[in-house]
Structure to design on (246 residues):
């Protein structure tokens, strides 16, 4: 992605064109990569490298439901580019040059910020009223699949789409870092929803990622984090301290 192309897209394209590009980007990430990731998991399982977490398989009806809700989410995600570009054009958001270091650090920073952002939104979604009216859509996938990753109520999709908007005005990023962030995010999402894991649920923390989120889908509580359980542990510690003071 050349500097001239980035400049043309950000400053010359209409908001309708920007929406269309963003919609297609998320559409291809989801409908293009989900089958590939699923087939890769099946191949790795045959090689005895990964193992299924829940023996129960998702039905075709569930996967169809997930695709329908995901398409609605992608429709919402498309709008996320509008306020970001508006703030860039108004000089509120500053873009860094696309150097290798800026790209790598940018993707890492956005991924770390997503951990915090996702935990807050996800915990908010588990307030009883929102759980019953909004987050229940995602939890219809009791046995998660790669097609569960964008299966949200439109309001939850809207909140989750604000990751770049909530940090770009504060910290400058390179355009390619912002462009690559959804790819990194969805790959982590696939890993957490594919219903496969390394080992048998024991061992070092990184092996338990899929197990934690899979358990959350079935239990509807705990394991609110995205790729890490650090914030879950911190939240539990704070809750215990509060209880001990009562």
């Amino acid at each position: 992605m050349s500097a001239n192309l980035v400049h043309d897209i950000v400053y010359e394209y209409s908001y309708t064109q920007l929406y269309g590009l963003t919609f297609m980007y998320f559409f291809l990430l989801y409908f293009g990569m989900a089958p590939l990731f699923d087939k890769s998991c099946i191949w790795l399982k045959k090689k005895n490298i990964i193992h299924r977490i829940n023996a129960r398989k998702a039905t075709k009806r569930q996967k169809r439901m997930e695709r329908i809700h995901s398409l609605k989410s992608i429709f919402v995600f498309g709008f996320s580019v509008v306020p970001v570009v508006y703030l860039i054009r108004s000089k509120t958001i500053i873009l860094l040059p696309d150097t290798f270091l800026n790209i790598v650090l940018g993707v890492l920073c956005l991924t770390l910020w997503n951990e915090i952002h996702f935990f807050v939104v996800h915990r908010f979604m588990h307030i009883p009223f929102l759980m019953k009216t909004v987050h229940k859509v995602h939890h219809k996938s009791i046995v998660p699949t790669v097609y569960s990753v964008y299966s949200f109520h439109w309001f939850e999709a809207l909140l989750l789409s604000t990751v770049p908007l909530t940090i770009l005005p504060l910290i400058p990023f390179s355009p390619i870092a912002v462009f690559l962030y959804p790819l990194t995010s969805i790959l982590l999402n696939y890993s957490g929803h594919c219903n496969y894991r390394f080992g048998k649920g024991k061992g070092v923390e990184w092996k338990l990622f899929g197990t934690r989120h899979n358990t959350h889908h079935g239990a509807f509580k705990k394991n609110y984090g995205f790729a890490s359980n650090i914030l879950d542990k911190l939240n539990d510690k704070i809750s215990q301290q509060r209880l001990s003071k009562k």
The CA atoms of residues 63 and 147 lie 6 Å apart.
